[in-house]
Amino acid sequence: MLFNSVDFLIFFPVVTLVYFLIPQRGKYLWLLGASYYFYMSWNPGYAVLMLASTLTTWVSGLALSASAQGKGMKSKRLKKWCLAGCVVFNLGILFFFKYFAFAADSIGTLLSFANISVRMPVFDFLLPVGISFYTFQVLGYILDVWRGEIPAEKNFLRYALFISFFPQLVAGPIERSKNLMRQVYEPHTFDFRRVKDGLLLMGWGFFQKLVIADRIAILVNAVYDDYTAYSGLQILLATVLFAFQVYCDFGGYSDIAVGAARVLGFTLTKNFKSPYYATTVSEFWRSWHISLTTWFRDYVYIPLGGNRCGRWKKYRNLLLTFAVSGLWHGAGWNFVVWGVLNGLYQVAGDLTGPWRTRLQKRLRVRTGCGSYLMMQRFTTFVLVDFAWLFFRAHNLTAALQMLLHSVKNIGLFSFFHPDSLLGIYTMSLSEKNFLVMLWGLAILMAVDYAKKRKADFRGILARQNIWFRWLVYYMVIFGILIFGVYGPEYDKSTFIYFQF
Length: 500
Known about the structure:
- By secondary structure, the chain is mainly α.
- The chain has helices at 6-21, 24-40, 44-68, 73-113, 131-147, 156-164, 177-185, 192-225, 232-264, 281-287, 290-304, 311-329, 333-363, 370-392, 396-408, 418-423, 431-452, 457-462, 466-483.
- It has 19 helices and no strands.
- 37% of the residues are buried.
């Protein structure tokens, strides 16, 4: 069930209404049933896998808690085996459904270089929706229990709700048990102001998805699906626009998820903080997909040694973490290259930092002025956007061929050639839709800039007269209905991060 579907527009109000009408002791059971119904609307079989991960980690958590009360080497070994078994089981499921075909193909290709022909087994399974997200959520829980940071949850049904909570189930944010598990036990009553804030945030998420992301997707898909038919300038424009497509698509989903949870009384992790106003790649990753970035930091980067083991080992840990992060996003070498590129940017930034500081002092560069910040933001965007090309391309070969094709078909003259400029309007978007897209992007960047300056839009709106507030509400609603894009022939469009 997609957020941008008619089914969800019926499902969510019904779930919310019943949730606030039933007694407190039954609320979590109602949400648990609604969450499994939400997930099973894609494929009932998916729920079996999620239930298996839930049951395994719940039992393992209790076993870890029990063994922690014992003393001696036997108890320590038991804890390690229990943790290892749980982690291997959950990662094994993820590997089989998401990475088996990729691993088999890579091994077959590698062996072919040695003139060894091996017929690898083939399994044709659909990737369960959201499996990467809830797998990381259960792994985060069991690792926290093993570290002794949280007690093992004894109530299986409440723990199952923590894993399956429908607003963030299929595409995050990836919640920690320290945050969401606690809220499962808290009483949630109807609060008009909180519900209104949640609905406003959902409305902003729908605007990002339907008005901006899905409109850009038409242009980006046309170019990336047949890049040889387009000039280097058009490929460049499509790649720049994809940066905003993936942001509005995933940021829009996150805002809808956080808003829906807020309506129900839950507070989820804020997943984005104006990432394209970042002045360094490191700052970008502190502002982009925050729940995943912090997950890799706490459960991969720091256990590898983090930055506590010398400069070169720190760089090794950083590159390994980003390589694994890239692989998490997709079973393809293009995703690995995308991750490693983002890691290399940060390594290069750290290595050249002292040299750049000395050069700035010698040239008397004013680093606090607006023009310098603008240059930093532009440079960061160019680096991040170049990496997005590998993320969006169908595979690594296609990404490299697109780069080669772009280099051959772009030049200074092409930027000013009338045919190239006119071609911008022929990339599957009409002039009207192109202008609507530009207006949408202008609104997005204005809102993000205001957020960067810590402006409280909902607070400002709440202080206005009631007629003005409702005028804004109706403008948002009708703006989405009139200017929203609902896919080819008005068919609902899926979210990008559902494939991960």
